[in-house]
Structures are given as structure tokens and as C-alpha cells.
Amino acid sequence: MRSQDYMDLEYNYGAHNYKPIPVVIDRAERVWVWDVEGKRYLDMLSSYSALNHGHRHPKIIEALERQLQKVTLTSRAFYNSVLGLFEEKLAKFAGYEKVLPMNTGAEAVESALKIARKWAYYKRNIPMNEGNIIALEGNFHGRTITIISFSTEHQYKDGFGPYTPGFKIAPFGDARALENLIDDRTLAILVEPIQGEGGVRVPPQGYLAELRRIATKHRILLMFDEIQTGLGRTGKMFAWQWEDAKPDVLILGKALGGGIYPVSAVLANNDVMDVLTPGDHGSTFGGNPLAAAVGMAAIDVLVEEKLDERARTLGEYFMNQLKHIKSDYVKEIRGKGLLIGIEIKKEFGTARPFCEKLAQMGILCKETHEQVIRFAPPLVIEKEEIDWALERIERVLTEPVHVQAKIARSI
To answer: How far apart are CA 302 and CA 291, in angstroms?
Structure first.
């Protein structure tokens, strides 16, 4: 079958909730993928940072295969011989006392919201069912009904109401405006240290530390969604470490599964997590032995290969080289570590045609918030591979306007 045949199958039988770049990936290894015709591409998206370790990392594959030969699923109705080991490793790695294992990022966010609410009602004596949580303009935490209820993106909400109440929205990057929203019913602040889906928006220096100060002052929980920014992506194991702004609740996912299996988790200390009692919350697959084995291997590889340090060094190089490109199309280049966004000026259309052209040249990336090209390659990428990408990125960003217009018309 040809690529078009596979695309037609998805179009004919799948829900139309995605608009993929027209490339059909058939196999992958480390930072490279191949389509069904055998053309090679450099993966510069990493499945939205789920592939920090690269595709099919041999140590993680080995851990998966080893566990497959023993037991894969038990449910939490019973203990299994892997989960406790994973929880201990993750808790010590991240610096928390307790771990709640889940599967997807959205599940972990939902779990954190439940924990925060029950903590507020039973530990802070906020009147039952009257608490509010402050989220940020431009946020993206998933697509469940509750999560889209505090989204500021019209499309994410359109047609899916009624919405879950109990949320306030603060401007992104403005700590004073956020503090002004706090009242005697506020129980938590939910923040992405860098907004990835929101367009790789980086807050002002000191913002995270100021949120930590505000949360402590008002005795509310600071919750960081590090599903995309965590596990080495920004050049630190966790983005909060750039400002020593450790949150009360840390939410992880994506790369915790090593690019192989869905693994997510909520982390907190005992005084927060102990509000959960048997029957309060659960998941059939959350904490299954296969996920636990993969999660442990993913952590080991992050530490052994110092992927955070690689992201910091190579990210600085990549961003500096991008900023040397003289392009009329580019409004701004921003990011941290190997999470980088190039914002295209609106007068030149959206970022989509640029991503399409890059795909034609062997680089896979994706637009976000219409105007931003997001680059987030696996953290195992080599400098020479970044240089290979830079040559092609420069060509696309410096082609004449009429060439870009032709690209846009062809899509």
C-alpha cells in the first residue's frame, strides 16, 4: 500500500479530529522515522515531547519485553511486584513522598484537580463544593470536559458545554494579576511552566518563583503541569528547577512512558496525598506492571544519559543558530532547552505551510496556535543532526514570498 492509501483509510474510517501533516510513518529509530515508501525524516516533534528518549530506546524496549514475559496487567484490586518499585524510584527522583500512577496526561490533571479540591475541603476547611482553582490564559491541560471548561481556546470548548464551574483565569506571566484573583475560596493555582501547546510561551524570569511565594503566602496549592516540560525537555529534569519553585503537586506524563507506553503520575507529599482513601479514585490500567517497568527504565535512561544536560547544551546551540537566520517571516524565536517555537508574522499567513514544506525536505514538526512552528526533537539528538536540520530550516525561512504563497495554495 502507498502512503495515500493509508491516509484514505484514516479519512474514511476515523473520526476527523486531527489534521495530520501528510506523512505516513512506518518505522522509527532514535531521532529518525521512515514513511511507507522508505523516505527518511528527522523527527523534530517527538510526539509532543513523549519521545524525549528517542524512538524505541533499546533499554526501554528491553524492560518492556522482559515484563511482557511475566505479567502485564493485574488491576489495583491486587498488589503487583513492580508498582512499588516504580513509585519509590519516581518519588525519590522527583523529590516527593507519594505517587499516584495514572495513564494519560489528561487523567493525571483530572486526578490532581480532585486531590486539590478534597485537600481544600478537608484540610483547609474551605466550604464544601465552593472552592475555585486559578488557571492561566492560553493553557492546555488536555481535552476532558472539566479541563476544557477552563480553556481559553474557543475551539476546545465549542459545542461541549455545559462546563464544569469552579475556575478562574489569570493572564499568563502576570503574577500580580493572578494574586488579585485569590479570594477565601481559592484552593490552588494550576500552571504549565512553559505553555507548549499555547505557542511555546515562556513566562518572564522570576515568574515561577513568584507563584511559589504567592501560593505559600495564601496557603493554597501550587500545581505544575510538567507533562510536556518535565523529564529533561527544558534543560533541567523539571522546568520548576530553573527558579527553585518546587510545586506542592507535580503532574507528569508523556516522556514518563519512554515513548513506548502511556504512563502518567501525580506527585505530592503526604499532607496532600493522604486525603485520598480507598475508593476515592482509581484506574484499571493505572500502575499496571508493564507501565511500571517502562516508567522505571525511562527514569534510568534520563539519569544515565544525562538527557537534561544534553537538552540544555544543544537547546542553547539550536536556538542561537535559529536566531542568526535572517528571515522576513519570523516575528520571534523563543523557548527553553529543546522546546523551541518560531512565531510567523500574521501577514505571511499561518505556520502550516512552513511545516508542510519542512516535511517535504525531511523534517517533521507541527504548527501550534496557527502562527508557531514548534521544534521539540528527541533529547538524544546529535549536534550534527541539528546542523542538518538548520540548513533546511534556513532555506524554508528565507525562500521568497511568492514561493511560500505557492506552498500555501497547494495545501
So the answer is: 16
CATH code for the domain of 242: 3.40.640.10
- Is the full-model pTM beyond 0.85? yes
Residues lower than pLDDT 70 in the chain: 401-411
Selecting among 140, 167, 224, 375, the annotated active-site residue is 140
Grid cell 512499588 in the structure block, residue: 84
C-alpha cell at 66: 522482559
Domain that holds residue 223: 58-304
C-alpha dihedral over 258, 260, 266, 270, to 10 degrees?
-70
List 89, 150, 172, 225, catalytic entry:
225
Choose the final residue of a domain: 304, 328, 354: 304
Indicate if 276 and 398 belong to the same structural domain: no
Number of domains observed in the structure of the chain: 2
Spatial separation of the C-alpha atoms in residues 266 and 260, rounded to whole Å: 19
CA distance 27 to 40: 10
Q: Check if the beta carbon of residue 194 is closer than 8 Å to that of residue 227.
A: no
- Which of 254, 336, 357, 366 is catalytic? The answer is 254
Residue 271 confidence (pLDDT): 98
Cell numbers at 80, concatenated? 503487583
Q: Is position 366 annotated as part of the catalytic site?
A: no
158 tagged catalytic: no
- pLDDT tens digits, one per residue of 62-96: 999 999 999 999 999 999 999 999 999 999 999 99
Active site residue 254: yes
